[in-house]
User: Which sequence fits this backbone?
């Protein structure tokens, strides 16, 4: 690898460096290959390490790089297309749902979720925790908040917590007639719990999909699903099930 000095450019130096680095990823590195350390990269391109970090962070946000605990920064594979819902909508946990229940416990929801559920102050709801894995890799984690008034017939023999309790809550939720749903997507940063579940570093870029489920003329459940921004490309359509597919292969030599 030779030394490459950056030429003067009108855009911010880190943005120009990002372009140069992206070209280097295409021509010099293979998917999964570990990049040289920051000191060596900064010396090669004649920039400060702070500038280098900004460029690397942008490439991670764009899905070109992955930072992994105990490994370092590696070249990311092509993003996976992840269908996150259908036009008509289905309840969480219905046939074809790719999510796996992990746990369920009563808890007080975040203020915004409590507002959507019209929960009273200090009122607890059922919090179902689910995960989604593709090709052996965790791609998303979900917290599904279900109003206690929506699942009043939970059996006393159901487990008080765990995956069995989660399935029980989902089963009772399905007894309601789904009237519709809406969905919002925003870019966020991985919190500690999300980072652990997704094998990411805290603060890593994530895509947060918030879905409200309507029945009986009100919001009965709210899903907050966190997807890895470095590996997922969210798609929306009228597919009944959840489908993951690979995008075009990225060429590297």
Assistant:
């Amino acid at each position: 690898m030779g030394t490459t000095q950056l030429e003067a450019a009108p855009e911010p130096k880190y943005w120009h460096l990002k372009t140069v680095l992206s070209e280097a990823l295409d021509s010099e590195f293979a998917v999964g290959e570990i990049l040289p350390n920051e000191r060596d990269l900064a010396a090669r391109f004649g920039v400060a390490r702070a500038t280098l970090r900004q460029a690397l962070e942008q490439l991670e946000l764009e899905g070109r790089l992955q930072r992994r605990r105990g490994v370092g920064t590696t070249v990311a594979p092509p993003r996976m297309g992840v269908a996150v819902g259908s036009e008509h909508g289905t309840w969480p946990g219905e046939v074809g749902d790719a999510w796996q229940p992990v746990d369920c416990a009563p808890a007080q929801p975040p203020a915004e979720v409590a507002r959507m559920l019209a929960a009273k102050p200090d009122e607890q709801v059922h919090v179902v925790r689910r995960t989604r894995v593709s090709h052996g890799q965790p791609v998303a984690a979900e917290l599904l908040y279900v109003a206690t008034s929506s699942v009043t017939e939970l059996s006393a023999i159901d487990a008080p917590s765990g995956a069995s309790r989660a399935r029980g809550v989902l089963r009772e939720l399905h007894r309601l007639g789904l009237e519709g749903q809406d969905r919002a997507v925003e870019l966020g940063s991985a919190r500690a719990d999300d980072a652990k579940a997704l094998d990411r570093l805290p603060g890593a870029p994530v895509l947060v999909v918030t879905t409200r489920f309507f029945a009986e003329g009100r919001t009965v459940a709210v899903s907050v699903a966190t997807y890895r921004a470095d590996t997922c490309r969210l798609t929306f359509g009228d597919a009944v099930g959840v489908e993951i597919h690979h995008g075009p292969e990225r060429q590297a030599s």
Summary: Residues 13-75 form a domain with the Arc Repressor Mutant, subunit A fold (CATH 1.10.10.10). The first strand starts at residue 65 and ends at 68. The chain has six helices and eleven strands. Residues 13-28 form the longest helix (16 residues).
